[in-house]
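Lecture 7, part 2: worked example. A protein chain together with zinc ion.
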Amino acid sequence: MFRTILRALPLRCQLCHHTLENRRYPWCESCHESFPRVPRCLHCGLPAPYVTESCGRCLNNPPAWDRLICVGGYTFPYDKLLHRFKYQGQYWLAPALATLLAQEIDDPAAVILPVPMHWRRRIARGFNHSTVLANELAKQLGVQCESKVLKRNRATRQQQGLSRQFRLSNLREAFTMTGSLPERVALVDDVVTTGTTIAEICRLLRTRGVKHIDIYCLCRTPPK
Ligand SMILES: [Zn+2]
Ligand SMILES: [Zn+2]
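Predicted complex, written out as structure tokens:
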């Protein structure tokens, strides 16, 4: 499957349009080397002066999850690649984006769960990008992807731009869970900003016996 997708990949770098010497990624090696990398807090995933288990923010106000692993912030080139993947139907970017993320994960959870999308929004968009990403990531990490355990009951309004109070009431009881899960799982999402949505899922998972929750996301960015 991966090979088939690779063969269908374009011959030019998708960022600078130079000819690709190899097709490991759909972008060239010099673009790849310039991808921004900053030290981050391993708990909230936000930039920190150096890699740390928990930053000052997390000590004061611990996130609902245990560890967050991301590729970078929502800045070039990740914003551009993600936009093409999500809104321009460039599904073939999924394996490469998953590879970037997989390289950051040393000790993956045995079960990973995509953040669910309400069926109405999924139909409107044609696919749930988190499920596509989680499936690809699970394949590369050799773990299990459970895309049907979590369900979004209501088509919650877009979280961005809502006040904190409104975001919380917007999400209350928005998710349900069926079946059982191991004590350690990981949630997969494309971008984590306020973290309100995944915090709500974490609360649900903990009431159902999950003890350790990792978050694997492509971009982690602070709220504006
Ligand atoms: Zn390039
Ligand atoms: Zn932190």
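The two ends are 39 Å apart (CA to CA). The longest strand covers residues 184-192. Keep this in mind for problem set question 3.
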